[in-house]
Amino acid sequence: MKSRAQKFFILSFLVFFLQPAFSQDHIAKAVYKCESLIQKGIEGYNGTNTLYFTAEKSLYIHNDYPKKDEYGGLGTNSISFTKGDSEGSPIFTDRKEGVVYFKVDYYSPIQSYILKEKIPVINWSILPESRKIGTLQAIHAKGVFGGRTYNVWFTPDIPLPYGPNKFGGLPGLILEVYSEDGFVKYKFQSFESNTKDLVVLEKPKSGKEITDEEFRTFVINNLLSVEALSTDQVKVTNGDPIPDYEIEKNKYFYITEYKRQRDGSVPANPKRNK
Amino acid sequence: MTRIAFFIGLLTCFLLGNTLIAQRGKTIRGMILNEQDQPLSSCLVYLTADTLAAPLFFANTNASGKFSFSLDSLQKVWLQVRYLGYEPQKLALEKTDTAFIRLRMQPQQFDIKEVVIKDQKPPIVVHSDTVRYDLKYFRDSTEYNIEDVIKKLPGVQIDESGNIKVNGKDIIKVMIEGDDVFGHQYTLGTKNIRANMIDEVEVIDHYQGNAVLRDINQSKEMVMNLKVSKRLKIAPGGSLDVGMGAGSEWKYSLQSNLFSLASKNKILWLTNIGNTGNQFNTGELKAIYSDPESVDYRLTRPSITSFLNPVGIDNPGGVPNLFVDNSQNAFSTMRSVFTLKKNWKLQVNGTFGGKNDNQATAQQQQYLYDANTYFLKTARKNHISNLYYQGETTLNHTSKNANRSFFVYAQFQLSNDQSTQGIAQTLQNQLKDYRSFNQIQQAEFSIAGLYTQKMGKHSVGQVQFNVFQLKDTETLQSQNTAYPKYWNLDSSRTQLIQKLEAPYREGNFFLRYIFAKGSFSGEIETQNTFSRAQFLPHTQLLTTLDAATGFPINLGNSIVNRYLFQQVLKMSQNLNKRDQLNFRAVLGKQQIETHQPDTLARIPLLRVNANLEHKFADGGNAVFGYNYSVRSNTVQNFLTSAYLPDPYTLILLAPRFRTEGGQNLIFQYGRRNYTKFHSHYFRIQARFNENVWHENAFFAQSLQVVLPYFTSGNNSFGLAGNFDQFFPKQKLTLRFGGNVTSAKSFYGINNENTPILLKTVNFNIDLVHSFWRQFKLDFSNRFVLSQNTIATPGSLKNNLFSWKTDVSLLWRSKSWFAALVLNRTYFTNKGQNPVNLLTTTCRLRKQINFKNSKQANLMLNIYNLQNTRNFSSLQRSDYFLYLSTVEAIPAFFVLSLDIPL
After folding, report:
1. Cβ-nearest to A135 among B52, B120, B675
2. How far apart are CA B310 and CA B522, in angstroms?
């Protein structure tokens, strides 16, 4: 016969220790469909994307991202290459630390790099329109991110500041994202408050974690090694990716900036890299 | 003295301090705890305005569960707190709230388990109070006018006269691209604009057309906005539909819709000419759809005593109009909106309508409670000719900062309705035969103005006037071979000419003060009305009479002057976020003065309504109300047709007044879920122990007298509802709705307190199913069961039952479309003498594509395929049962071409 004190102790233990454990186990899942015009060939960011999240962390996975390196257009003059990623090119957000980890495939055909940056701050304007998306009441907001203006629909019914890709910072989950130039489009598909998917919310594993400065050095070294192949007759060089075909179109100007500084003709534009 | 000075100083400091704090800004701080009083971190906390869901400010709680907002100024806002897995919390904050907020969250009982989006592009989008329907999801090419598409939208109901309701709530305006071009007569648009001219329909709730009132008075009005097809927004255009056909006579039709909406000046021109039964009815031109409670710059047309009723096309009910309407119609309306300057708008509208028709009808009328008392058979041949002209203009200005606005409205209307009738009547086996000519000529002019001025942050003042003038001349010439049997007059052929001139004038002046602050809103209105109605009858009998009969009696001229002074007080208090207390009181005085005979009545007016309204979180509402009133009810006298077997005198009784009142209870619950493609609502309404005026119309010595009588202890109960569901996988739409009413009322049959039980059950079910892409079935059924009984033992009981079925079978390929439409209606009373109506229509259409991506349609429609000769229906009023029969239009076809312009 257990004493009352013992019962009370066990009950207290259950209430105070099991409750946080139970809450932490709850991972919510939102599924999006990305319909960007960014990748015309092999599907990468496009297709199904999944966001897993708790109150403090989120993990965004591109489900249709090639699991291994893929080549498109073989046998033609226009061969395309997509760096595969077994983790689905994840974007991991840690609200406690205020940082986001993500993978880049930019000029890194051999190894994936994991970059870390502060959670982007988007200056949203919340607009009065609202509409139903599924059973969720969504509210219209507008903001600029990565050089594009976006119209998004978020829902306070899911009161966490996440969204597809790196979009977030609104008082509720972002359900739909439309860039005004028509290049980027994310549409909400489904939501589960407690997913049964076996997923761990942690930063990407496969790849080398480097700083932004190290990554920039890597890109420039890559450029210099390519340019070293030049002869008097043939000049070989690299350029930055075409901005329109990047989700953050104002981000990857490392080579352009470097060339500007090197050639000395045009002063570097410090705003560009922000 | 020192103490007083100290107190004043303290008070000044306090007041000034408050002001300074308000000017400096304000910080809202608080803490969010879980159910065990532990701080909840990363909790979403945000502020919203009173009416909008969009957050104004938001923050997340820190590790110790705390949050803070710094605001420049603060009006009444809602603080909302959300955390996944917990019930959302909402707290009203007033301007003066400064206390530290401590909120405890409770675990959510029903979490958002799963949301799945099936459709990529929703046919229905909800933006705050606006619901937008994309019509391409609802059209199936069988629709002719926009009304035909609107009735297919989930949650929208249209009755037979064209009144539109959305989830049970009346639509009071139908606008085109945001402009109210049709005013009170919105069926001019919904019945004449072609279905393919409109791309989107918006339903806007809480619409406030007067910009000055937007922050003060949250309107309860609901309007509909039609958005025209995209190509018409770029350049002027429209459609032209020209048709020719034949049956027992030649058929023709021309319908054109022309729009010029591309510039800031909008012009619409709608025309409909023809004799195919698809045309607009001139009766519609005088129809008014408005809420008498709403403040509008146009005066709702006063209810005016009429001598004759215009004769129209008689449809026994149950069959589409084109099977009985053989009339030649011409209708054209031009509506225009000019933006003169940024905040100035001028509307100019002009309308013309004409109708010409012959129709043969027959009717059996029997007293509902005893067939032996009264049984009248009537056969008529009518020729009607109606003409109608209307012009109206509105000038509207709203100041740049929306601090003041004014509307000036003027309209004139001319109409001439005339008919000749050959009538044979048998009453109690006595045959009477006569001919008559009716003519109603009316010239109407009205002018109105409304000035609205913001008087402060929380108040608005309004001044409004209306002046209305009517010149009404009604003539009845009747020729009767059997007058002696009616009038005990000479046996020779008799011709009677009756003419009534009834000029009417009315003037209204209103002063209104509207106030709203925080959760309270109020309105005070003063109304002054004067009206003068004159009745100038002329009677002439073109036969030498027996002097002893004294016929016709010289009625003399009579004048009725009415003065009304009343004050209306409306108050509304939000008790909390869901409950609202409403109070309305009308206090006034009415004086009715009649000359010849001379009477004078001074009548006090008192009406009080109070109700408590509760709103449910997801849409429904419940109303508990109490009504009390002291209302007069004047006796009205009409001259009536001369063929009734009564001598001729005028009776005018003094107005009477008694206390009306009772309790009412309304419970309404509605929900629209557009992503799951369903909407439903139901409403329960009960009235208890009501004291009400009834009106008993009877013939007294050739005059139709409307005699009011007062009854008490009336009870009624009603239940109504509607349900729409679309099943995307099965491509199946299911709609059902209906109402049940039961009332015990006291009527004046044998005496003024004869209790009658009235029960009605109305039920409709529609099913639309696309079996596969090319084939579609539309099957709709409407059942009405109506029972009335005198509530005394052994009394008569009537059970009227009608069942209406419409079946459409549609087939379409890429450019071809074919449809077979069957309508069947069945009527019976107590299962005896059933009446069956059947109509069939066949439609064929070929789409022709032009190089410029425009499309034309070549159509063949064949009506009355089975060539039915007449249609009958069974109907009842409170006192009579009618079996009405009309001659049907023999089978005919129309070949038409619809060209885009």
Report:
1. B675
2. 43
- CA dist B780 and B605 (Å) reads 47
Q: Do B85 and A172 touch (CB under 8 A)?
A: no
**Of B796, B822, B799, nearest in space to B809 by CA:** B822
Is A159 in the B-facing interface, judged by CB distances under 8 Å? yes
| Integer angstrom CA distances of residue A62 from A65, A91, A164, B133, B708 | 5, 9, 10, 34, 77
Q: Identify the pLDDT of residue A6.
A: 57
Among B56, B58, B675, the residue with its CB nearest the CB of A134 is: B675
ipTM at complex level: 0.70
Confidence of residue A162 (pLDDT cuts 50, 70, 90): very high
- Comparing CB atoms, the residue among B54, B112, B120 nearest residue A158 is B112
Sign, CA dihedral B152-B153-B155-B157, equals negative
Determine phi and psi for B88, rounding to 5 degrees. Answer: -65, 145
Beta carbons within 8 Å of B130's beta carbon, 6+ residues apart: B202, B203, B204, B205
Burial of residue B680, with CB atoms counted within 10 A of its CB: 0-12 exposed, 13-18 middle, 19 or more buried: buried
- Rounded to whole angstroms, the Cα distance separating A126 from A135 reads 20
Tokens 């349609």, located at residue:
B857
Sign of CA dihedral B215, B216, B220, B224: negative
A-to-B residue pairs, Cβ atoms closer than 8 angstroms: 105
Cβ-based burial of B436 (10 A; exposed 0-12, middle 13-18, buried ≥19): buried
Give the three-state DSSP class for B737: strand
3-state SS of chain A is CCCHHHHHHHHHHHHHHHHHHHHHHCCEEEEEEECCCCCCCCCCCCEEEEEEECCCEEEEEECCCCCCCEEECCCCCCCEEECCCCCCCCEEEECCCCEEEEEECCCCCCCCEEEEEECCCCCCEEEEEEEEECCEEEEEEEEEECCEEEEEEEECCCCCCCCCCCCCCCCCEEEEEEECCCCCEEEEEEEECCCCCCCCCCCCCCCEECCHHHHHHHHHHHHHHHHCCCCCCCCCCCCCCCHHHCCCCCCCCHHHHHHHHHHCCCCCCHHHHC
3-class secondary structure, B204: strand
Q: What whole-number distance in Å separates Cα of residue B227 and Cα of residue B233? A: 9
Record the pTM. 0.62
Convert B371-391 to b/e letters by CB count within 10 Å (16 or more is b): eeeeeebbebebebbbbbbbe
| Buried/exposed code over B63-93 (b: 16+ C-beta within 10 A; e: otherwise) | eebbbebeeeebeebbbbbbbbbbeebeeeb
Confidence at residue A79, expressed as pLDDT on a 0 to 100 scale: 43
SS3 B189: helix
**Residue that the structure tokens 């409170």 belong to:** B878
The CA distance from B206 to B223, in Å, is 8
Q: b/e for B638-655, b at 16 or more Cβ within 10 A?
A: bbbbbbbeeebebebeeb
Residues of A in contact with B82 (CB under 8 A): 156-157, 159, 172
Closest CA to B892 of B419, B275, B382, B443: B275
**What distance in Å separates the CA atoms of residue B552 and residue B542, rounded to the nearest whole number?**
11
Q: What is the mean pLDDT of residues A183-202?
A: 87
Structure tokens at B337: 């909106």
The pLDDT of B572-590, averaged and rounded, is: 88
Task: Supply A49's token pair.
Answer: 């994307």
DSSP B366: E
Looking at beta carbons, which residues of chain B come within 8 Å of A127? Answer: 54
Which residues partner with B882 through β-bridges?
B365, B875
Q: Do the beta carbons of residue A50 and residue A28 sit within 8 Å?
A: no
Share of chain B above pLDDT 90, in %: 16
> For residue B486, what is the DSSP state?
H
